[in-house]
Amino acid sequence: MLELERRARRHGSGIGPAQVSGPWELRHLWGRERATAQETPAALLRLLGARLTISPAEGERPGTPLRLANSVRIGALELRFLGWGRLVGRRPLLQFGFEELELRLGPRRLLRRPVPPGDPRRQPFFALIAAGSDGQGRWLLARGRGGGLACWRCPSADAGQQLPAER
User: Fold this and answer.
1) Bridge partner residues of 98 (DSSP)
2) Which one of 45, 96, 120, 155 has the fewest beta carbons within 10 angstroms of its own beta carbon?
């Protein structure tokens, strides 16, 4: 994975909107300086049904071609943050921000509130390193603003590249 990251820093990853669109489930996490996966936080997020859903935002404001929903779920109760995203640069960075908070019980919305904008100088992002697919669906490898590395899965029936070997 580190070799994929070095290659993406030098030459870019070529990842575009089509490769990031979908419902992504977190599979593995590594801290900034860790060579082994942090399985406890990743397992907790999987238990909570953590999901990052990315979709094209047709008709939205210019320069923000993606819509994001970041959610966790306990039974039928779901907490989700809704916002925007954009791909910037050749690596690229997936920059994003959240505008609304929703609390849902099944299909019923219980609460919807605006999220105050964050400091534009500290805007969150994921540096997209590599993407591919295997017999279990698509995968995406990214490093967050805080330095952690994450491997996400989008369960679909694609075939192709294998998931990168763990560090």
Assistant:
1) 83
2) 120
Q: Is 96 inside a domain boundary?
A: yes
Distances (CA, A) of 16 to 38, 56, 89, 126, 149: 28, 11, 11, 13, 19
* Other CB atoms within 10 A of residue 54 CB: 23
Look at residue 142 and tell me if it is in a domain: yes
- Cα separation, 52 vs 71, in Å, equals 7
CATH number for the domain that contains residue 75: 2.40.128
Per the structure, the complete domain to which residue 126 belongs is given by 2-154
Total structural domains within the chain: 1
Nearest CA-CA partner of 66 in 123, 115, 21: 21
